[in-house]
Amino acid sequence: MDFATRAIHAGQPADPSTGATITPIFQTSTYTQQGLGENKGYEYSRTGNPTRAVLETCLAALENATHGLAFASGMAATMAVLSTLRPGDEIIAGDDLYGGSYRAFERVLRPMGVVTHYVAARNTDDYTAAITPSTRMIWAETPTNPLLTLVDIAALGKLARERGVTLVVDNTFASPALQNPLDLGAHIVVHSTTKYINGHSDVVGGAVLTSDDALYDAIKFYQNAAGGVPGAFDAWLTLRGVKTLAVRMRQHCENAQRVAEFLQGHPLVKHVYYPGLAEHPDHALAARQMRGFGGMVSFAFEGERADVDIFVRNLRVFALAESLGGIESLCCHPASMTHGSIPQEEREKRGVTETLLRLSVGIEGADDLIADLMQALDAVAATHKAQASVR
Ligand SMILES: *Cc1c(COP(=O)(O)O)cnc(C)c1O
């Protein structure tokens, strides 16, 4: 079945007891059992809840996975995957990754004896060179955050399988509508469902999808043991959100392409990062690996941090906020917001400078978005002009 059809129907038959067309919110912690050892498949909602189970089945179908597990946040999903590692194991990760994942690797995993080596995200040879006998996992995010470079999933999948390493792809930025890493050789997909999957900026959630039975068993065990599960209402909201993922993503891509092309021609813009631009170094890989170029656009100012501040204060449609993937447009300053937990020196080395902004382009009218960016850029230009005349 087509992706859009699966998003609406996979795992979501009418409720057998009432005929309810939409999956009910099973707001219960416990389940009445028929007799000793006899129940209807549910005993306690940390272990399993019918609303959550429907979400897990649907998300698995969207990533072409056999198994799905839902979590209370993307980080809870990430930690559940990392729980499969033991002291002495090593991870190789791309150097341009979600700040919270970096924090988890450095401040949670490293003190427990699991060391992460960082390599240039787009360079497959660097991953090969970094493999040691202790390497257990490769952690990839593509497109990367916030610089939107691409990682060649098929190449890493081949490497991981040759070397007996688990390849994990954080697919949050692309969403399953645009990219399915398991089809390209990854073992596990992680999502922050907070972003495109729910898509309405009203739930925090996460998911792990895999077709590997042993990894599924280990991560499911951890889900129940550690307990970072979503409540029934959050699972239901996410299910409601994901139904429109296909149409939303189409519009995100269309709007982001227009925004990127507008920014590219502006004199106050030094560089635009968007895989949909022909000039993007990974444009060909993006065209091969993804079904669209996504809704995220980053750009660097020709100027200073003060210009960035004037710009963000003047935005009217775009909101200055962390997060991404919702229907509304957001603008984020990674150096002080999402990537604030990465030391400044490390940040600058990676290209996450003080003048870099990341846009999550929403599905409002593209003309309104461009007009908003234009008037905020005009405000920066007007300030420059006023300062010049004072001097
Ligand atoms: C937001 C995000 C996460 C963390 O997800 P939460 O739901 O905020 O815990 C992980 N990876 C990426 C790429 C993200 O954007």
Report on this structure.
With 391 residues, this protein is an alpha/beta fold. The protein has helices at residues 3-9, 50-62, 74-82, 99-109, 124-130, 153-163, 213-226, 232-242, 245-264, 283-289, 305-314, 344-350, 366-390; strands spanning 67-71, 90-94, 115-119, 135-141, 166-170, 188-192, 206-210, 269-273, 296-301, 319-320, 330-332, 356-360. It has 2 domains: 3-242, Type I PLP-dependent aspartate aminotransferase-like (Major domain) (Aspartate Aminotransferase, domain 2, 3-Layer(aba) Sandwich); 246-390, Aspartate Aminotransferase, domain 1 (Alpha-Beta Complex), CATH 3.90.1150.10. The strands form 2 sheets. The protein has a 7-stranded mixed sheet with strand order 1-7-6-5-4-2-3, with helices on both faces. It has a 5-stranded mixed sheet with strand order 8-9-12-11-10. Strand 4 (135-141), helix 6 and strand 5 form a beta-alpha-beta unit. Helix 3 packs across helix 4 and helix 9 (245-264) packs parallel to helix 13. It starts with a helix and ends with a helix. The mean pLDDT is 96. The site of pyridoxal-5'-phosphate has 16 residues, from helix 3 and helix 4.
